Fold this sequence. Notes:
Layout: E1 4-10, H1 21-28, H2 32-37, E2 44-50, E3 53-68, E4 75-92, E5 99-109, H3 111-127, E6 131-143, E7 152-160, E8 167-177
Antiparallel strand pairs: 1-6, 2-5, 2-7, 3-4, 3-6, 4-5, 7-8
Amino acid sequence: MRFIAVLSALLALSGCASIPFSTMAIFSQFDEKTLTTIDPNQMLVKVSVDDDFTLKPDSTKLQLSVKPKNANRSTEAAFGLELLSKVTEKRATGLFSAEMEVTTYEFKVDQTGVAALKQLQTQFETTGISGDMSFSVETNFDVKDGTEIKDEMSLWIDLQLSEQQGYIPLFDAAKMEVKKV
């Protein structure tokens, strides 16, 4: 029997306890000017899941949603990701909690995604679009063979916008409900 959890981890910065305050501070100043200075070749995404689950790398995408000021609808762009590595490591689940063994998948934006993001950056520069922006990561998961099906999973998502800045934690040990589909 196969179970899949579909996740769209939106960086809405709405005060979720799994989003660190440092991340909220960084992204509260993120605007279209910041977006146009990002080198898409330096963007990396890390997704870590507790050891009971496996991630489907081919289903993982980085998405950007832009809602221009004075507009009723947003524009979304999805950027494909290419798997760089898959490692088993330990991550902290909280300030006073023990570390948990996780599988971490590291991705870079694929060449089609790099070209699409560069085109979007040029469009922002030439048209002067401004508004609200958010990144999200979408992926699919499976339960490891022989593992008891759990109702929730722990999830970490980190985003690197530049090599100098390093990884920014988007979700830190977030508890996500697992739904059967």
